[in-house]
Amino acid sequence: MKVKAFLTLVLTGFFLSGAIAQTMSEEEIKERIMPVGKVKVAGAVDATAAPAGPRSGKDIYQAACTACHAVGVLGAPKTQVAADWQPRLDEKGFDQVWKNAVNGIGAMPAMGTCGDCSEDDIKSAIEYMIEGV
Question: Where does the record locate the signal sequence feature (predicted)?
C-alpha cells in the first residue's frame, strides 16, 4: 500500500509540474532553470569576458602557448630559442610556420590551445616566440 501511495504522489508531482510549466512563459522558465552560481578556477580566464582590447603577442603566448612552448612539449620549439626556431624558419619560412600553427601540425591542434584567437593573434604569438632568433 505504501508503494502505491508513493507512486501516486510521484506521478501527481510530475503532472502538476508539467501543468505549471505549460502556463509559464518562456522567460519565466529560463529564469526558473537559470544556474544559481558559477565555478571560478584560480588563474583561469573567463571565456565570457569581453576582451579589454588588443592583446600583445606576449599576452597570447602566456595565456595559450606557454604550456608547450616554454619547455618544448612533444617537440614544440621553445620560446626564443634560435636552435629550435631557425631551422623551421629557414626550411618553411615564416608564413608556412604561421599557417601550420593556424591549421595544426604534429601534436599541436589548430590554433594551438587558444580558443578565442584570430589568425592575427596567432601571428603575434609566433612573432613573440621568435624574438631575437
Answer: 1-21
How far apart are the C-alpha atoms of 70 and 119, rounded to whole Å? 21
Q: Which position has the grid cell 508503494? A: 3
Please say whether the beta carbons of 114 and 122 come within 8 A.
yes
Fold classified for 57-129 = Cytochrome Bc1 Complex; Chain D, domain 2 (1.10.760)
Give the residue from 128, 116, 122 showing the smallest Cα distance to 52. 116
Q: Which residue has the higher pLDDT, 121 or 42?
A: 121
Domain ranges (residues) in the chain:
2-33, 57-129
Helix H segments across the chain? Answer: 2-23, 26-33, 57-60, 66-69, 82-103, 119-129
For 61, phi and psi rounded to 5 degrees? -55, -50
What residue has cell string 503532472? Answer: 15
